[in-house]
From TrEMBL:
Its main location: endoplasmic reticulum. The chain crosses the membrane at residues 22-41, 48-66. InterPro entries: Spc1/SPCS1. Residues 70-93 are annotated as: Disordered. It is found in: Endoplasmic reticulum membrane. It comes from the Eukaryota. GO terms for cellular component: signal peptidase complex. It is a multi-pass membrane protein. Component of the signal peptidase complex (SPC) which catalyzes the cleavage of N-terminal signal sequences from nascent proteins as they are translocated into the lumen of the endoplasmic reticulum. Dispensable for SPC enzymatic activity. It comes from Vanessa tameamea. This is Signal peptidase complex subunit 1. Belongs to the SPCS1 family. It holds the Pfam family SPC12. Keywords: Endoplasmic reticulum, Membrane, Transmembrane, Transmembrane helix.
Length: 93
């Protein structure tokens, strides 16, 4: 089970935007090509196959957290100590 815990599972915000742009571009491109090809050969099934291939390609390229989607990590603040919060000044809002 250690192999599963060693796999990174996060994508940063910039990576999410890149993945969504790439997904939309691939689906749009494959749908246009599929429509044109299906119209030329007069087979709707060919359009669906091409769109399905685009969906599979887009899923392979955008669903896993590839390193290209993890280049801009967020710097999180350290958590505050709860003892300092309770012994601090009261009354100010």
């Amino acid at each position: 089970m250690d192999i599963f815990t060693s796999i990174p599972t996060h994508i940063d915000y910039v990576g999410q935007a890149k993945a969504e742009k790439l997904y939309r571009a691939i689906i749009t491109l494959f749908s246009i090509v599929g429509f044109i090809w299906g119209y030329i050969v007069q087979q709707f099934s060919q359009s669906v196959y091409i769109l399905g291939a685009g969906f599979i390609l887009a899923a392979i390229l955008t669903l896993p957290p590839w390193p290209m989607y993890r280049r801009n990590p967020l710097n999180w603040q350290n958590p505050r100590n709860t003892d300092e919060k309770s012994s601090g000044k009261k009354g100010k809002k």
